[in-house]
Specification:
Layout: E1 6-11, H1 23-35, E2 40-47, H2 50-56, E3 61-66, E4 74-79, E5 82-86, H3 88-91, H4 109-124, E6 135-139, H5 145-152, E7 163-167, E8 175-176, E9 197-198, E10 201-203, H6 204-211, E11 214-217, H7 220-225, H8 229-232, H9 236-241, E12 246-248, H10 278-288, E13 298-305, H11 311-323, E14 327-334, H12 336-348, E15 353-357, H13 361-370, E16 373-376, H14 386-393, E17 396-400, H15 403-408, H16 414-418, E18 425-427, H17 432-446, H18 449-461, H19 467-481
Parallel strand pairs: 1-2, 1-6, 2-5, 6-7, 7-11, 11-12, 13-14, 13-16, 14-15, 16-17, 17-18
Antiparallel strand pairs: 3-4, 4-5, 8-10, 9-10
Helix pairs in contact: 4-5, 5-6, 10-13, 11-12, 11-17, 14-18
The structure holds adenosine-5'-diphosphate-glucose (ADQ).
Adenosine-5'-diphosphate-glucose (ADQ) binds next to helix 1, strand 13, strand 14 and helix 13.
């Protein structure tokens, strides 16, 4: 007899295809399908931002109502395996999920995401008729209070529901002043070192990390790195103390959406056996970015333009990249100074550097299909998805040896090349000299077409589908509900 599926409420502030600002959305969106083959029925709860509600269509079912959820009425809307928290006073506004169009965080973010977490804990605890869950899985600081509500203020009479807290990025912790604590609806004992108190204020991610039965992050190397102050960013002591409960599970990618054999966004479809067909994509990409023809590699970057991603270091290596005969197509948005820096580099190197500031999903597919190598010089990278897309598309990753980049790319050292295992180039220490040296190594590989194609083929043969990671999450859930 097969056992009934484990029912998981996955709680995230963004999930594809509904709302995305970064990699969290890819993962939260992919999890339910990744878990289904492993006996887990996952339902995703996201906030009802204006765009989400607009796309939800006319008649979603109302599964629960709150007369007053942190200052206004709210409804739980259900559509298939999706739940949306419709709370107009918190989420129905123009702008982005976490701030206005000018990039300022919403001043009431603590209230928005406390309410979201409270609602999640209510739903996991059985408050909504007909919806039952065995476990709550919270993602990042926006969902961080949900495990704390389950621990300190569960639905009256409900059976205990275990929680998993996943860190997608330790740099974002949801820290707010102590004054908000009395408004969270938590009992006084939650204001403690092993509760929500954090450096004299309230830490939303911290609260989740203290309260969840298990902690995961998105690669084994990052799980080790966050035990150190440099990567733990104030929470390294907590991570060390809870070491036994911390697990590193690498993200998968959606192999249906990211498949060069079937991708509707690209000009020429191809497989590892038909690599020469890629050249049409390459030519189209160069044309799209106004780049001249050349025999050097066409590098791409698809990234948030931030310090985390090492984009300031890349700026300092661009003259060298061009001097080597390379070209660069960059798509991204973020810090104004970095955006200006890339515009200036493009002006300095017309025909060699092309820059597109903005967010464009279809273009990101065309770039992976047409680029020769993708640059990911991150200072820290919990997992990273763009290098995985690069591997799948034969766009060779050139990455810093950190976090998930260290775990997913096999450096083209002599031994790895000799056995055909190498899939990319790694470098240590994110500073201009190290990146320039990595570019030199990349060029040496590029000049030997046999080596280069071996890198591409080995990368395309890697399996970063969700199969393994889905099984790992399912095994963890099973332990916790047992
Ligand atoms: N301008 C643009 N146009 C189109 N698409 C763009 C884009 N800029 C970025 N993207 C896309 O957004 C996603 C970014 O995901 P990443 O994993 O690389 O980083 P992020 O730091 O957002 O995620 C955090 O969470 C994820 C998920 O766990 C971790 O992998 C990661 O290390 C961690 O920092 C990718 O799908 C990428 O293609």
């Amino acid at each position: 007899m097969t056992s009934p599926p484990i029912r998981v409420l996955s709680v995230a502030s963004e999930a594809v295809p509904w709302v995305k600002t970064g990699g969290l959305a890819d993962v939260a969106g992919a999890l339910p399908a990744a878990l289904a083959p492993h006996g887990v029925a996952a339902t995703t709860l996201i906030p009802g931002y204006r765009d989400v509600l607009a796309r939800l269509g006319k008649r979603p079912r109302t599964a629960h109502k709150w007369a007053d959820l942190f200052g206004g009425p709210a409804r739980l809307l259900a559509r298939d395996a999706m739940l949306v928290l419709d709370a107009p006073h918190l989420f129905d506004r123009p702008g982005r999920p976490y701030g206005d169009d000018a990039g300022h965080d919403w001043p009431d973010n603590w209230r928005r995401f406390a309410a979201f977490a409270r609602a999640a804990a209510d739903v996991a605890g059985g408050a909504a008729k007909g919806l039952r869950f065995d476990l709550l899985h919270a993602h990042d600081w926006q969902a961080g209070l949900a495990p704390a509500y389950l621990r300190f203020a569960p639905v009256a009479g409900s059976k205990p529901v275990p929680a998993v807290m996943t860190i997608h990025n330790m740099a974002f912790q949801g820290y707010f002043p102590a004054e908000v604590f009395p408004q969270l609806g938590l009992p006084r004992q939650a204001w403690a070192m092993d509760g929500v108190e954090y450096h004299g204020g309230v830490g939303l991610l911290k609260a989740g990390l203290e309260s969840a039965q298990a902690i995961t992050t998105v690669s084994p190397t990052y799980a080790r790195e966050i035990r150190q102050p440099e990567f733990g960013m104030g929470l390294d002591g907590l991570i060390r103390a809870r070491g036994q409960a911390v697990h590193g599970i690498v993200n998968g990618i959606d192999g249906a959406e990211w498949n060069p054999e079937t991708d509707p966004a690209i000009a020429a479809r191809y497989t590892a056996a038909t690599l020469p067909d890629r050249s049409a994509n390459r030519a189209a990409l160069a044309a799209e970015f106004g780049l001249e023809a050349g025999d050097g590699p066409l590098f791409i970057v698809v990234s948030r333009l931030t310090w985390q991603k090492g984009m300031d270091v890349l700026l300092e290596a661009l003259d060298h990249l061009v001097w080597l005969g390379g070209r660069l197509a960059l798509l991204g948005s973020g810090d104004a100074a970095l955006e200006a820096g890339f515009h200036a580099a493009a002006a300095r190197h017309p025909g060699r550097i092309g820059v597109r500031i903005g967010y464009d999903e279809a273009l990101s597919h065309r770039m992976q299909a047409g680029g020769d190598a993708i640059l990911v010089p991150s200072r820290f990278e919990p997992c990273g998805l763009t290098q995985l897309y690069g591997l799948r598309y034969g766009c060779v990753p050139v990455v810093a040896r950190t976090g998930g980049l260290a775990d997913t790319v096999i450096d083209a050292n002599v031994a790895a090349l000799a056995i055909g295992a190498a899939t990319g180039v790694q470098f240590d220490g994110v500073h201009p000299a190290a990146l320039k040296a990595a570019l030199d190594r990349t060029l040496a590989l590029w000049r030997c077409p046999e080596d280069w194609q071996a890198l591409q083929r080995a990368g395309m043969a890697q399996d970063f589908s969700w199969a393994r990671s889905g099984a790992a999450y399912a095994a963890l859930y099973r332990q916790l509900v047992a």
